[in-house]
Amino acid sequence: MASSKEYVNFIMEQLSGLEGVTHRAMMGEYILYYGGKVVGGIYDDRFLIKPTESACRLMPTAPREVPYEGAKDMLLVDDVDDRAFLAELLLAMYEELPAPKPKKKKSAS
Q1: Whole-structure pTM value
Q2: Fewest C-beta in 10 Å: which of 50, 52, 65, 79?
Q3: Where is the TfoX N-terminal domain (predicted)?
Q4: What confidence tier does 104 reach under pLDDT thresholds 50, 70, 90?
């Protein structure tokens, strides 16, 4: 089941207090970025984030779920109504996330 535009728009609105939060559609689901780094995504209308040390500390009882078959476990963000918590979560995670990979340049043929 693909995620609904309504849920994606809701999550993006909840994160609107942070500058630099973007999303990209990918195969019916959505990858979420903060400051150019992948923080997680929206899969089957679930907001899942990477299980960084900070995320695990801020959500110690969060269930781990698989976004899609063959993927690594991610943390389910249950409290999507608390904008302040969501901002705190992404800010805490930022330094622990890997830098974005440089885009490959297309060679001229």
Answers
A1: 0.88
A2: 79
A3: 13-73
A4: confident
Q: Which domains does the chain have, with CATH numbers?
A: 5-94 (3.90.1150)
Copy the structure tokens of residue 77: 């963000």
pLDDT of residue 105: 72
Closest to 42 (Cα-Cα) out of 68, 20, 60? 68
* Contact predicate 90/15, CB 8 Å: yes
Please state, in angstroms and rounded to a whole number, the distance separating the CA atoms of residues 98 and 28. 24
pLDDT of residue 1: 65
Other Cβ atoms within 10 Å of 90 Cβ, number: 24
- How far apart are alpha carbons 21 and 44 in whole angstroms? 20
